[in-house]
């Protein structure tokens, strides 16, 4: 099988969401596939490759992907994706209906958002500059982990203290006082803390984990077997990535 010049790609890591997946090869190329690409969550426009088969993600040739993340949601008409490159940049694509991509929102509030190109989705990965600018104000140390829920995003800083949340927040999943219906990227006062090892986001639930995978904080709509199963998968994935202590 030929995939944009790469024959039978071998993945060293696969980010598995509920509706789509992203695979990374040893040389830092990213491929995506899934049930649908209606909201641009696959980040590719190669129409010659069926979206249910791995196709090369649209990125500049100089970009080498080190990490990938796919959203955990049950809505086939939603979904978003994130990748981190070898320079530490956060790129995002997919549904942006609730500002969950963090694109262009540094100059607008939750009600004054203007979507790029007039679309409520982006089918090409773009650097989330507003998130990086926000993190720099907090003595930016890089990104340790990212979690994508149904319509919201969590970013954990490398110093393990700050969690930045954005997107849909009506169920309290962003960890903000007052549960805003939608929010641009901001530091979450409830989810931020100390010694946070990883973050999880499933549907409308957000969780922070300690070094052994135990819950530090949990916010949002979290009481369902589907969410519990998703959090368990997130914990195991964090362990495989070396974010948790494998000996405990």
From TrEMBL:
InterPro entries membership: Ran_GTPase-activating, RCC1/BLIP-II, Reg_chr_condens
RCC repeats mapped onto the chain: 88-159
Superkingdom classification of source: Eukaryota
Pfam families xref list: RCC1_2 (PF13540)
PANTHER family xrefs: REGULATOR OF CHROMOSOME CONDENSATION (PTHR45982:SF1)
Protein known as: Uncharacterized protein
């Amino acid at each position: 099988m030929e995939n944009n010049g790469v024959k039978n790609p071998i993945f060293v890591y696969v980010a598995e969401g509920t509706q789509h997946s992203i695979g990374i090869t040893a040389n830092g190329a990213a491929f995506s596939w899934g049930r649908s690409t209606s909201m641009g969550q696959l980040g590719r426009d190669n129409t010659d490759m069926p979206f249910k088969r791995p196709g090369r993600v649209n990125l500049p040739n100089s970009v080498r992907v080190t990490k990938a993340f796919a959203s955990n949601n049950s809505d086939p008409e939603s979904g978003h994706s994130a990748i981190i490159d070898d320079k530490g940049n956060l790129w995002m694509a997919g549904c942006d209906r609730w500002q969950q991509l963090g694109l262009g929102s540094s100059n607008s509030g939750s009600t004054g958002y203007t979507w790029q190109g007039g679309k409520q989705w982006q089918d090409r990965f773009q650097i989330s500059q507003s998130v990086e600018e926000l993190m720099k104000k907090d003595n930016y140390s890089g990104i340790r982990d990212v979690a994508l829920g149904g319509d919201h995003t969590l970013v954990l800083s490398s110093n393990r203290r700050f969690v930045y949340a954005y997107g849909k927040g009506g169920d309290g999943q962003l960890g903000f006082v007052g549960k805003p219906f939608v929010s641009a990227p901001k530091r979450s006062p409830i989810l931020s803390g100390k010694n946070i090892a990883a973050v999880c986001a499933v549907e409308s639930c957000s969780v922070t984990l300690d070094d052994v995978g135990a819950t530090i904080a949990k916010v949002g709509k979290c009481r369902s077997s589907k969410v519990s199963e998703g959090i368990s998968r997130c914990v195991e994935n964090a362990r495989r990535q070396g974010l948790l202590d494998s000996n405990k």
